[in-house]
Amino acid sequence: MESYITIDGWNAKIRFSSAHVIPEYEKCGRLHGHTYAVHVKVFGKTDEKGIIMDFAVLKDVLRDIVKKLDHRILIPEKSSVVILEKENDSIKVTSLGKQYVFPASDCILLPINSTSAETLSKYILEQVAERLSSEKQIEKMEIGVDEGFGQGAWTTKTFER
Ligand SMILES: [Zn+2]
Fold first, then answer.
1. Looking at residue 127, which CATH number applies to its domain?
2. Is 100 within the bounds of a domain?
3. Cα dist from 132 to 54, 79, 126, whole Å
4. 129: domain range?
5. Which of 19, 42, 140, 160 has its CA 20 to 30 A from that of 129?
6. Annotated catalytic residue: which of 20, 24, 28, 87?
7. Is residue 84 a part of any domain in this protein?
8. What residues form DSSP beta bridges with 102?
9. Domain assignment present for 129
């Protein structure tokens, strides 16, 4: 038997609204935005009180992570097609023949190669896993990132104990 707890990002308000570009795709290659929701499933052993982990702790961690992404322009620092130049308080983004200049305070630079839902779910999963490393009951975690309603990507991580 395997149990898990789950949080639905739309209902639990684990959401963020951000702008991004995916330069390699024609339509997504124009600056646009989404409201994202982050869902989680945490698989694990129940303790003597019958719980895997406290929902409130899990939600606090998720909220803290999405707060940093909310109302920002998401910029993938490790993209092979994005060149970043930092000038004073601005960030110049050059990609596939286009240039954007944003106020640095409006951006968040992420150590990822794309801001696809797939990659964002991996990034968020790593962040959550790091912060919950002391939660010994957890055996496996899945993070889903919806890009608007009805479409999303999930990543799974197994915890070696
Ligand atoms: Zn998009």
1. 3.30.479.10
2. no
3. 11, 28, 10
4. 3-71+113-158
5. 19
6. 28
7. no
8. 91
9. yes
Is 28 an active-site residue? yes
From the CA of 29, how far away is ligand 1's center (Å)?
Answer: 9
CA–CA separation, 94 and 12 (whole Å): 37
Does residue 3 sit in helix, strand or coil? strand
**pLDDT for position 14:** 98
User: Residue 53 has which token pair?
Assistant: 């982990």
Which DSSP string do the residues of 77-132 spell out, in sequence order? TT-SS-EEEEETTEEEEEETTEEEEEEGGGEEEESSS--SHHHHHHHHHHHHHHHT
Domain count, the chain: 1
81 is a domain residue: no
23 in Cβ contact with 130 (< 8 Å): no
Q: Is 71 a catalytic residue?
A: yes
Give 34-52 pLDDT, tens digit per residue: 999 999 999 999 999 999 9
Whether 87 is a known active-site residue: answer no
Which pLDDT tens digit goes with each residue over 94-151? 998 899 999 999 999 999 999 999 999 999 999 999 999 999 999 999 999 999 999 9
